[in-house]
Write a structure and sequence with these properties.
The chain is built from nine helices and 14 strands. The protein is an alpha+beta fold. The chain has a single domain, classed as B-lactam Antibiotic, Isopenicillin N Synthase, Chain (Jelly Rolls, Sandwich), CATH 2.60.120.330. The longest helix is centred in the middle third of the chain and has 26 residues. The chain starts with 22 loop residues before the first strand and ends in a 13-residue tail after the last helix.
């Protein structure tokens, strides 16, 4: 017998399976809710809508709203303006570069992250779990660009003079007549729609319909125009999966074009494709509302995977409350079986915590802050 032993090769792990494509969500997984009764006088019908919204927010955290009060022509116009902006040369878009200010407004080029030296704000455990450093490090390039605007405040506004974080003016591109006016008009329209939605949430939570109005007097509502380039299937899936996230604020109202690509993660772990429905809004719950409801409402992981061979446009409106809103578990969401899951969180500081980690900014200290 030979003394020479044959080396046994170490077992080779099988290659990781390619990410699977999502499947279309069906009606019971992504409810479509008719908002027509909310413009009428039938209180029973309004309560029925509120129950449907409540159950959708509890079960999946996503729903599609039809027959809402936002005029179709305004939706068409904001998409037209978005395409005008993103068709500009890069130099023209960069004149409104987000990193030129401290307010996270303006143009966000592709794959422009935040910088650690600019980190600000403060959140609590359980808020934005996808910000875990290991997950952030694994983020892959995602071929989208964005433009963002918030409430336009004059230089003599008391909060601007005080240097309160996230308060100030927007950055606008040069030589694009009508763009500023259209974006601000859409912001105003969607602020009104957000108030209606908040009243529906309140009804479903057994609170007075105007309960959330006290927290939306000077809200940090954002309009975000988004443009996604097509990618090959594998790159799109890897980019989308690595950038899957939960929204941070109260709730989001999204218009997507007919390309599709928005996917949500079900409780069973499947990725469900959200069907585009013309002139509808996809609404989803953010982490702030999830915590406000003591985890009754779901803030669901979602991503965009654009492997359809066409450019994709979407318009997101993020209905964040006032900066000074102190978020505590709502009284109707706390009982013996559901004790409070946290003490309190300052809404504006939590948003600042997120924004400074994912978007570029000057990173200068704010004049007034609570942290």
């Amino acid at each position: 017998m030979s003394d020479i032993q044959t080396a046994v090769a170490a077992p080779v792990a099988p290659p990781m399976p390619a990410p699977k494509l999502g499947r279309w969500a069906n009606a019971n997984e992504l409810p479509v809710i008719d908002f027509a009764p909310m413009s009428g006088n039938n209180e029973d019908a309004k309560e029925r809508v509120a129950r449907e919204v409540h159950d959708a927010c509890r079960d999946i955290g996503f729903l599609t709203i039809v027959n809402h009060p936002v005029p179709p022509q305004k939706i068409a116009e904001i998409f037209r303006q978005s395409k005008r902006f993103f068709a500009l040369p890069l130099e023209a878009k960069m004149s409104a570069y987000m990193g030129n200010s401290n307010l996270f407004r303006g143009y966000l080029p592709m794959d422009q992250p935040g910088q650690q030296k600019a980190y600000r704000g403060k959140a609590i455990e359980g808020f934005q779990p996808h910000l875990d450093p290991a997950r952030m490090k694994a983020r892959k390039p995602h071929k989208n660009e964005a433009f963002q605007a918030s409430l336009e405040l004059p230089p003599d506004d008391p909060d601007v003079l005080a240097g309160k974080p996230l308060h100030g003016h927007n950055q606008w591109p040069k030589d694009l007549p009508g763009f500023k006016e259209a974006v601000l008009d859409y912001h105003t329209t969607m602020t009104e729609f957000a108030a209606l939605l908040a009243s529906v949430f309140a009804r479903g939570l057994k609170l007075p319909p105007d309960y959330f109005a006290q927290f939306y007097k000077k809200p940090l509502i954002q309009v975000r125009l988004l443009h996604y380039l097509p990618q090959d299937q594998q790159a799109a899936l890897e980019g989308g999966d690595s950038r899957a996230h939960q929204d941070a604020g109260g709730f989001t109202m999204l218009q997507q074009d007919d390309v599709g690509g928005l996917e949500i993660k079900s409780k069973s772990g499947e990725w469900l494709i959200v069907p585009p429905v013309e002139n509808s809004f996809v609404v989803n719950i953010g982490d702030s509302m999830r915590m406000w409801t003591n985890n009754r409402f779901a803030s669901t992981l979602h991503r965009v995977v654009n492997h359809y061979g066409r450019e994709r446009y979407s318009i997101g409106v993020f209905a964040n409350p006032d900066y000074d809103t102190v978020i505590r578990p709502l009284p109707t969401c706390v009982d013996a079986d559901h004790p409070p899951t946290f003490d309190q969180m300052l809404s504006g500081e939590a948003l600042l915590f997120l924004y400074s980690r994912v978007w570029p900014s000057l990173g200068e200290p704010d004049k007034a802050s609570s942290y």
